[in-house]
Amino acid sequence: MKPNVPKSGFFSRIIIAAALSLMAACSPERAEPAEPTRTDTSPVDSAAGETDTGEATEEARVELVDASDLRPAEALSELDLTDGDWFMNGGEAMFGPPESEAIFTMGCDPQASEIFMTRSIDVTADGRVRLGVFTKEAQASGYWRDADDVMPIAMARLASSEPGLEEIAYSERFAVAAEGRPLLVLPVNEAVRAVIDECVV
To answer: Domain residues of the chain, as ranges?
Structure first.
């Protein structure tokens, strides 16, 4: 009697099944599962992020003023100049952005021997706010008071003998501080020197 030998088709089916199992085990989809799809479709609040950034910038500028004497925490040469230009109007030096209202002015009252200044800030709630004027080598101090104008404007007067004012004429830049307000870092040009020379020199 001949031995019962399985037909070749039987072995073929076994080989094919083993190959399919091996391919399934090595499939990339099985080895590296896909990342889960984000289901949270709520919009990102970009406006809130922009507000936070703006507030941080404003606070950073205020922090440049030392709390004890208003002196800038950094050297004047390291600070960015306030955006704007000087122009003369009726003997006063005025500073502000192009084609806009002046944000700072200074002039001389020769009869009183005083330098007077105005700045576009509101000090009505405070009554008065400490003022500091700084150059690289010297400083002057006083107070801002409400100018009693329809616009929020503060004004200050400093005696021409106040230390630091004469130094402005020989400087490239100077800083004007108001307690709790952003620091102004202003370039010195001929308009500024003319005001200083009239009162101080």
So the answer is: 58-199
